[in-house]
Amino acid sequence: MIIDMHVHVWDEGYQPNGYKFGMAKNAAFKKLPFRDPKEILPKVMSGASDPSGKLLIDEIDALGIDAVVAMIVDMGLAFNEEQETPIEEVIENHAELIQKYQGKFFAFFGMDPRRKGHLKLFEDAIKNKGFSGLKLYPPCGFTPDDSICFDYYEKCIQLDVPVLFHTANTFPPLDPGLSHPAYLSKVSSLYPDLKVIYGHVGRPFWWKDILQISESNTNAYLELSGWNHVANKDPKKFAIILREMIDTVGPHRILMGSDFSAGPKTIGERNRLPAWLNYLRTLPDMSSQYNVNFTSEEIDLIMGDNAQNILKI
Ligand SMILES: [Zn+2]
C-alpha cells in the first residue's frame, strides 16, 4: 500500500495575505537578480489551488498512490488577519473531501491552540467527521511545550490519534526557531503515550536533533516530506541520511510524505511526486551506487504500511 502522509488542499483564500507575501518574498530574494515580491504574490497560491480535490485524486490515481493525508494549517492569528476563507470553513471543506473520497482522502485537523473553542471542534472532527489526527504549526507563535497545547495532547491520547508537528524551515516573518525539535523532547516526556509525528524530519538541518530526541520514544514517527528536494539534488546524500534514520529509530517509524499541493501548475509534467516515489522504490536496487543497503521490506513500511497502521486503515 502506498500512502502519502503529508499533502495539502488549498484555495486562494485558505491562507492569510501576510503568509502569501512571505512566500513571495522568499522566492524574490532567493537569488540574484532580486525580483519584486509584489509581482510574484498573485502567482504563489493560484497555481496550487484545488479546493474540490479533483486534481489531487486524479493525480494520485494515475501514480498508483492508494491514499493521501491532507494537513490543515491555521495561520490567521500569526498574521493578525483573518483569511478570506475562515479556518472553520477550511476544516468543513476537508470534512467534505473525506466523505467524497472515502478510503482515499484522509485529513488532520488544524486550528491554532490559542483560538477559543479549538478543543470542541477538534473532538467533533475526530469523532464525527472522519479526521485522523492533529497538525500543529509552531512557527505561528507558540512552542509545542507551551501549556496552551496540553489540552490538545490529552485529547489526542484519549482519542488515540497522532499529532504532526511542523519541524522544518518556514517563510518570513514566521519564527522557524519555534519548531525546533527540542521543544518536543519535553512534550514526549510529559506525554509518553502521545503519538508524535515529526513533520519534514527537521529539514534541512535538524534531522540529527530529531534522531537524538526520538530514538528512545516508541511513539515518535519521522515523516519525510520536503526531503524529496534533497533526494532530487543529491540522491546519494539522502540515501545515507535515510539509512541513518532507519538505523536509529527503525523502519517501522518512518513515513513517506511529499507536501504535494495539487493545482493547475503542479500536476502532470511539473509534478515532482513521481520522481520521489521512483527514488524510494528503487532504493534497494541502487545500494551499490549509494554504498548503503535497503531492503524492500523497509521500503514497503516507509511507503505506506506504517501509515496504514497509524491511520488504522
Ligand atoms: Zn505541509
What does this 3D model show about the protein?
- The chain is of the alpha/beta class.
- It has a single domain, classed as TIM Barrel, CATH 3.20.20.140.
- The protein has helices at 17-28, 37-44, 54-63, 87-100, 118-128, 150-159, 182-190, 207-214, 227-233, 235-249, 273-281, 287-290, 296-311; strands at 3-8, 67-71, 105-109, 133-136, 163-166, 196-199, 220-223, 254-255, 260-261.
Fold blueprint:
Elements: E1 3-8, H1 17-28, H2 37-44, H3 54-63, E2 67-71, H4 87-100, E3 105-109, H5 118-128, E4 133-136, H6 150-159, E5 163-166, H7 182-190, E6 196-199, H8 207-214, E7 220-223, H9 227-233, H10 235-249, E8 254-255, E9 260-261, H11 273-281, H12 287-290, H13 296-311
Parallel strand pairs: 1-2, 1-9, 2-3, 3-4, 4-5, 5-6, 6-7, 7-8
Helix pairs in contact: 1-2, 5-6, 9-10
The protein binds zinc ion (ZN).
Low-confidence stretches: none
The quaternary organization reads as single chain
CATH superfamily: Metal-dependent hydrolases
> Given the structure, what is the number of helices?
13
Global geometry: globular
- What's the count of strands? 9
Distance between the termini: 11 Å
Q: Summarize the helix and strand pattern as letters.
A: EHHHEHEHEHEHEHEHHEEHHH
Count structural domains: 1
- Secondary structure category: alpha/beta
Query: What CATH architecture label applies?
Result: Alpha-Beta Barrel
Strand content: 5-15%
Mean of pLDDT: 94
For the biggest sheet, the summary is: 9 strands, parallel
CATH class: Alpha Beta
What is the CATH T-level topology?
Answer: TIM Barrel
What ligands can be seen in this structure? Answer: zinc ion
Helix content: 40-55%
**How do the strands line up in the largest sheet?**
8-7-6-5-4-3-2-1-9
The radius of gyration computed from the alpha-carbon positions, rounded to a whole number of angstroms, is: 18 Å
